[in-house]
Amino acid sequence: MIYALDTNIISFLLRPGRNQEVVQQFEKIIEQGDSYVIPPISYYEITWYLLRKKATAQLRIFERIYQNASTRISMGEADFRMAAKIKANMEEQGFHLAAMMRIYLSQLIALSMTIHWLQIM
User: Fold this and answer.
1) What is the CATH number of domain 2-120?
2) 55-86: buried (b, 16+ CB within 10 Å) or exposed (e) per residue?
């Protein structure tokens, strides 16, 4: 069986005081030899959030989880990471896009990543 780890599940795995039920289920997936995938939007969201919070230890854990995923982003991985870094740096400096522009860009990124995701599936 192949499982998709969405942003919420990954955040449960990375959180201090992690939800043991989620951790045990994830470990069970690994032990049984089942596969998991991480959707591109989840990769972007988790990477952006951890960079924004300067959570380097959690980012290393996430990268290990990501590297062991069955299907990874085949195109644009560096672009998604760079986009997350740029957004984290901009917010750190107090620069925030207007609400409408943020919604537009988020939808554009999501559409682009969905198309890439469908192409590799």
Assistant:
1) 3.40.50
2) eeebbeebeebbeebeeebeeebeebbebbee
